[in-house]
Amino acid sequence: MQKYLSTNRHRESTSKHSKIQVAHTRLLAATQSDRARLIYSAAFRRLQQKAQVFSLESNSAVRSRLTHSIEVSHIGRYIVATITNMVINARHIKRNEKECWAQNSLAIANMVEISCLAHDIGNPPFGHFGEAAIKEWATAENIKMAISSSFNLRKSKKELSKYEYLLDDFSLFDGNPQGFRILTKLQGEDGLNGLNLTYSQLAAFLKYTYSPSEKAKDMEPKPPFSKKIGYFDSEKEIIYSTWNDLGIERNKRHPLSFLMEASDDISYCISDIEDGIEKGIIDRREFADFVISELKLVKLKYKGRNSICNVLIKSLTHKDKILPISNFLSFKTVLSNYLVEKVSRIFVDKYYDYMDLGITNTLISKETIEYDLLETLKKYTSKYLFTSYDAEKVELSGFAIIKGILDEYIKVLSLTKDEFYALLINDVKFINEKNLHIERRLFNRLPEKHLNAYKASISKISVRDKNWSDNYFSKMYNAESKEKEWHLRTHLIIDFVSGMTDQFSMEVYQLLKGIHVK
Questions:
Q1: Phi, psi of 225 (to 5 degrees)
Q2: By three-state DSSP, how is residue 210 classified?
Q3: pLDDT value of residue 128
Q4: Nearest alpha carbon to residue 125 among 188, 183, 46, 181
């Protein structure tokens, strides 16, 4: 494990803790620094106004992405504590590995916690419907026409097809690669290194290990960890540097990312149901009846390994009023504890396979009892929660809001490279001559932090670098290809929209459509 615990960063740290001589003390300090960088970031705070299931929810007891992420982080630390104890007592694990876990248990727990806290940081407003809206927008004719307009192409499908690769990042958009982009580019102040987390932390965050240009979807057989993209082509350099530093072969997973993934799986299945109960959408008795009937099927499937099913059924049916917790809370506690124990045992039993990066399945994988237990909950939420009127009405609105905002910004993406530069430097004369008044106002809504990331990607240096100047940027901008510039400009728009909270996106949509003007 030690080789996967690096304190190196893409930009060398100037912090005092980087000079600490004792390795495990330096690692602990570095992970504490990483944790602070995340929890004090604006992107993390915005999670409090992004929905877990129910968008624009006024009931504070119902989870937001923030409260969900905090709960996932608790499970993550719980798993690390359990694994540490198992590793220390395992006969098949060598002494040096036991010492590594004993000395670095707090640092490892911090790393898994940070991955858990950040796992949803790239999710757009309205969750998966926000993602779907971005994907649909990126495959529509409007955006293709924007490319034609920006590049002054003849309206020829053959000519346009040469540039459609520029849309791959967006037609495959997902909160995971956007989260990686936030951590490595958009947060922080220099526009170049983001939060500048340790390489170990970046690798532990990464759940999927391919970018669009690596074409994992076209490979046969399909490689592991390629169900979705894990990073955009715009961040390939940073993840390649990360893997090189840690000695990880490209497209392989860091061992600790499995723990973050399992923590999320354990947490969200149960918490979504609890939110449904809180909102009155789910009836406790109906839930118990459904789950008990499913648990009986699981018992038949796993004869001899099904004692947990009996315990869970009992937790849902007990009528002992002396017990201090409800049936549902008892069920939740029993299931969570069982799953933490199981995934920890799987990780330790196959410890050296994980360390050799030879595992290709998730910790909670198909054809296991732990998978089927969670699948029971997913069946219920699919049938009774996600199709509820409360959930669906806001999802429909959210889809229209995100796509509606992006459709307005087609105007900015239709500009030529020279026209967009006029907006960047606020060339009033050029703007007036070209009648770019709407485009200028749309441009002025873009956050400075995202513009700095765009400029840094063009210029290859930070906007805070001593060598930065308007003349230097102008030179680098003119030297950049129109394709690369347009790709970065599109990321700039997506960064803006996906970073919005649910409430703010609704306000922006109403503003742009003239529905509500303050």
A1: 60, 35
A2: coil
A3: 87
A4: 46
Backbone angles phi, psi at 381, to 5 degrees: -65, -35
Q: Which whole-number Å values give the CA distances from 9 to 18, 164, 198, 353, 425, in the listed order?
A: 10, 34, 5, 27, 33
Please tell me the distance from the alpha carbon of residue 420 to that of residue 413, in angstroms, as a whole number.
8
Cα separation, 478 vs 489, in Å, equals: 15
At which residue do the structure tokens 């459709």 appear? 407
Summarised one tens digit per residue, pLDDT across range 84-98 is 999 999 999 999 999
Of 254, 291, 267, 257, the closest CA to residue 339 belongs to 267
What does the alpha-carbon distance between residue 175 and residue 1 come to, in Å, rounded to a whole number? Answer: 28
Rounded to whole angstroms, the Cα distance separating 94 from 351 reads: 11
- The residue behind tokens 């809206």 is 133
C-alpha separations of 243 from 226, 249, 294, 319, 355 in Å: 17, 7, 43, 54, 14
The residues that bridge with 284 in the sheet, in sequence order, are none
Give the DSSP H/E element, type plus range, for residue 313: helix 307-317
Under 8 Å between Cβ of 174 and 124: no
Among 204, 193, 185, smallest CA distance to 252 is for 204
Is the pTM for the entire model greater than 0.85?
yes
The low-confidence residues of the chain, meaning pLDDT below 50, are none
For residues 44 and 36, what is the distance between their CA atoms, to the nearest angstrom? 11
User: For 247, left (φ over 0), alpha (ψ -120 to 50), or beta?
Assistant: left
CA distance 175 to 368: 28
Q: Which domains does the chain carry?
A: 2-123+174-255 (1.10.3210.10), 128-171+391-512 (no CATH), 282-387 (no CATH)
What pLDDT, on the 0 to 100 scale, is given for residue 321? Answer: 58
CA distances from 102 to 33, 94, 97 (A): 21, 13, 9
